[in-house]
Design a protein that fits this description.
The protein has 152 residues and is α+β, with helices and mostly antiparallel strands. It has two domains: 94 residues; 41 residues. It is elongated.
Length: 152
């Protein structure tokens, strides 16, 4: 039996909804990129070695570079893992397990991509409002100084 690439190209791409196994590194990157704040568990042979919460700072695919979890920051290299397992959790959440042999880095999102977007937008709007207020106050001080100099 021979392999015919044309025949396999007609099969549809997988469709996973909240559960399943992802082996394609590009798909893993897309799923993990917008995680934001997570609870993580480092599991080896079913024993929890470490757990905590942090923020996913970077997700990349670079052979030879490590996945790093320290100081509440997660730098995830999808090349460190064989596959990603999606699991449906209570409260309409999806858990993400990055698996390599008997090791599993389990990520449970504390926020949704929608919440992350709103938070970033709110922070930008708040910063703009504070900047506008500071500039307005500075302009008022300058105008007051000009008026006091002219009135003497």
């Amino acid at each position: 039996m021979s392999y015919d690439p044309a025949a396999s190209s007609h099969r549809p791409s997988p469709c996973l909804v909240d559960s399943g196994i992802v082996v394609n590194k590009a798909d893993m990157l897309r799923l993990l990129n917008d995680l934001g704040q997570v609870t993580y568990l480092d599991i080896q042979d079913e024993a929890v070695l470490s757990e905590g919460s942090g923020y996913v700072m970077d997700v990349f695919a670079e052979p030879g570079l490590a996945t790093l979890v320290a100081n509440q920051s997660l730098y995830l290299n999808v090349c460190s893992f064989d596959y990603l397992e999606l699991e449906r959790l209570p409260e309409q959440k999806t858990g993400f397990s990055l698996v390599q042999d008997t090791r599993r880095l389990r990520l449970i999102p504390l926020t949704t991509p929608m919440q992350e977007h709103v938070t970033r937008s709110f922070n930008a709007a708040t910063l703009e409002a504070m900047l506008a207020e500071a500039l307005s106050a500075s302009l008022d001080v300058c105008l007051d100084d000009d008026n006091s100099l002219g009135g003497s």
